[in-house]
Write a structure and sequence with these properties.
Rossmann fold; 22 helices; about 625 residues; Heat Shock Protein 90; Ribosomal Protein S5, domain 2; nine-stranded mixed β-sheet
């Protein structure tokens, strides 16, 4: 191509090349800048939950300023309705607050101190990314309503009379052209509402007919999260100006933390969590007058920390990691403030409660013994793993990773598969930039009730923990999603269960933080000469047959290896279906004991009762397959 061609056409760069986007277009074109990833709702940090949080955060900020003790939230399959009873948006600014960037009360530090969001784009993003958005303000007997579609005002807002209590009502429906195949997972939403309640003692949230209320803040949070029978001592709870924490030790492996800044759940931690961990170690060392290893002090800990910071600096719009260093205008740093407060309070509490001090010391010494017992085998196993990593046949890695600070790292996933055929199909169809594959040799070991020594003795487990980079916790996790991809048959289900036991036994924080998923693949392919429909359930199969008619060709997929790489690419791409592994209300130790422990009459009864249902389904499917063959 000559110089003349380069100077014209697509290579032109002049005044006409510059394009200005309005606020709505910019948000819709670059949603990641405002709400992180879009997603379909299978991950707790997907965009639809960020939309809910942005609206509720405004209500929480009103409550923090002393206005409104109740928030009503109703969420259905498609629509979200949030009503607070604060001061209500000033009627003259109802439209501007939700549709003009850099408009909001949070720029006035006198109106909102230490609020969750200070960027002024939260509700604007919700508005722009919604098929339908409504905001209505009630103030002193008057009201004003504005309605939007994808950020465009569609009504003529006027002030009218109202007998409603002061406050604000927001109603929206996420845009399904942006959030494809989205669905709200109830457990994620319930967890979100509980966090709001724990962080705002005295606030009542009515969510879908259920009341969420906390009297003792983070103390209540740990009581809900931890199994009382597993705790080594009563929960230590301390509260000061702009800081609150609670901590205890259990019997599980790993460290488990719940961290918050200005009411925001910082799932990726940050400055305040690092300082909290330092403070715990410092407080214990100062009290026991011995320089115990930090890992031994924190092993098996369950804790929560919440701080209030003026003008917090987060590392992304979704506010999942705090990057601030300053705590307040007086120049105090987050690190020094949190570390000093926690260390002092831990030391004081242990002085006042000798029984708790004895119990904590026993837990520390036990961790020390366990660490020393496996030190030798750990070193040998890690040396083998390092050598294997140079040419690890089990791992087909991707280019970008979650622990790297780049935009694509957030999308990184690893598929854990069984057998050459399954891993081969995924490997050939995966996105090499963000999708890795780890292949199992066969059924992994049932590691329930075993010690962590087995992780190093078992070559496969050791290579897996190194591939994930979770040996010392999940702070440097290499993949945002750990996806178990097994056949949808009895053996495949068993492998799923064994892998989940491995993660829950030794790395429970990986599951509790929402990083573990099950890959859903189609059970049937229904097609005629014009159209192919993949079905994930028998109901979908029946609907596909009804749609295509005239006796379409039906294929039953019994294993991942039966799906061609070309087809598999469609199942792990944009329309991937994932089921998150959730613990629900059951406590970890009891769950593992029931499902993976020794056989008991209770478990036998459970299997027999549920097996009848599954056998009915299997027999029905076999009848279908026989009919199709005939």
């Amino acid at each position: 191509m000559g110089k003349t061609e380069k100077a014209s056409g697509v290579f032109d760069y002049n005044e006409s090349s510059i394009r200005s986007l309005d606020w709505r277009e910019h948000i819709r074109l670059r949603p990641g800048m405002y709400i992180g990833k879009l997603g379909d709702g299978s991950s707790k940090d997907d965009g639809i939950y960020v939309l809910v949080k942005e609206v509720v955060d405004n209500c929480i900020d009103e409550h923090m300023m002393g206005y409104g003790k109740t928030i009503d939230v109703k969420i259905t399959d498609q629509r979200v309705v949030v009503r607070d009873y604060g001061r209500g948006i000033p009627l003259g600014k109802v439209v501007d607050v939700v549709s003009k960037i850099n408009t909001g009360a949070k720029y006035d530090s006198g109106a909102f101190q230490k609020s969750v969001g200070l960027n002024g784009v939260g509700t604007k993003a919700v508005n722009a990314l919604s098929n339908y958005f409504k905001v209505q303000a009630f103030r002193e007997g008057q009201a004003k309503l504005a309605e939007f579609k994808k950020g465009v005002l569609v009504n003529d807002p006027k002030v009218g009379k109202s007998d409603e209590r002061n406050g604000t009502l927001v109603e929206f429906e996420p845009d399904n052209s942006m959030f494809k195949n989205y669905h709200f997972i109830p457990e994620y939403l319930e967890d979100l509402m509980w966090n709001y309640a724990f962080l705002n003692a005295g606030l009542t949230i009515n969510y879908n007919g259920k009341k969420y209320y906390s009297k003792d803040g983070l103390l209540d949070l740990l009581k809900q999260k931890a199994d009382a029978e597993e705790l080594r001592y009563p929960i230590i709870h301390a509260k000061g100006e702009d800081i609150e924490f609670a901590l205890t030790h259990g019997n599980q492996y790993g460290e488990e933390y719940y961290s918050f800044v200005n009411g925001q759940n910082t799932t990726q931690g940050g400055t305040h969590l690092a300082a909290f961990r330092e403070g715990i170690v410092k407080g214990a060392r100062d009290f026991y007058k011995k320089d115990y290893d930090a890992a031994d002090i924190r092993a098996s800990i369950v804790a929560a920390i919440a701080v209030r910071v003026q003008e917090p600096v987060f590392e992304s719009q979704t506010k999942t990691k705090l990057g601030s260093t300053n705590m307040a205008p007086d120049g105090a740093t987050v690190r020094s403030f949190v570390t000093d407060f926690v260390a002092k309070e831990v030391e004081i509490f242990l002085h006042k409660n000798p029984t708790t001090a004895d119990a904590m010391l026993k837990r520390i010494l036990q961790s020390e013994r366990e660490r020393k017992e496996i030190a030798g085998i750990k070193k040998l196993a890690n040396d083998r793993a390092k050598k294997a990593n140079l040419h690890n046949k089990k791992l087909r890695d991707c280019r970008y990773h979650f622990d790297e600070k780049n935009e694509k790292g957030v999308d990184s996933v690893i598929f854990i598969t069984e057998g050459d055929s399954a891993s081969g199909s995924i490997t050939k169809s995966r996105d090499v930039e963000t999708q890795a594959v780890f292949s199992l040799r066969g059924k992994p070991l049932n590691c329930y009730s075993l010690t962590k020594k087995v992780v190093y003795e078992n070559e496969e487990f050791n290579l897996l923990q190194h591939a994930l980079n979770i040996e010392d916790g999940i702070e440097n996790l290499r993949y945002n999603k750990v996806i178990i991809a097994t056949d949808a048959d009895v053996d495949g289900m068993h492998i799923r269960l064994l892998l989940m036991t491995f993660f829950l036994q030794f790395f429970p924080e990986l599951v509790k933080a929402g990083h573990v998923f099950i890959l859903e693949t189609p059970l049937f392919r229904v097609r005629n000469k014009k159209e192919t429909i993949y079905c994930y359930s028998d109901e979908e199969r029946q609907a596909a047959i009804a749609k295509l008619g005239s006796k379409p060709e039906i294929t039953r997929f019994k294993g991942l290896g039966e799906i061609s790489p070309e087809e598999f690419g469609g199942f792990i791409g944009e329309n991937i279906r994932l089921a998150p592994v959730l613990l629900g209300d059951g406590h970890l130790a009891k769950l593992l004991e029931f499902y993976m422990g020794k056989n008991t009459p209770d478990r036998q009864d459970f299997i027999i009762e549920n097996l009848r249902i599954e056998l009915d389904k299997v027999e029905a499917k076999e009848e279908v397959e026989v009919t199709e063959e005939v």
